[in-house]
Specification:
95 residues, single chain, mainly alpha, 0% strand, 46% helix
Length: 95
Amino acid sequence: MLDLYTFKNPIAVDPNRFEKAYSTGISPEQMGRDPRDGGYGGYVNYGLNKGLWETWKVFKKATGMRPYEQPAIARPPPLTEEQMRRAAQGLEAGE
C-alpha cells in the first residue's frame, strides 16, 4: 500500500487560507475503530450519529433554543480614565 505521508517536507511553510480549510477526511481505519478507541464505530454508526446531530441542530433552530455557546461580552477596562492618564505619564517620565 502506498503511504503518501511517509516522507515529510523538510521546509516548514506557514499554513495559508486553503490549508486551514482543507481536511484529509476520515480514513477507513479510523472509521472502523471502536469509538472508545478514538474511532467512529463504522459507517452506519457514523451516519446515524451525523443524522441525529443535524436533526438536533434543525430542532434547536426551529424551536428557538439557546445555543450552547454564549457570545463573549466585553468587560469594562480595569482602570479609570484618570488612572490610565497617570500610567501614561509615568511611562513617558521613565518611572
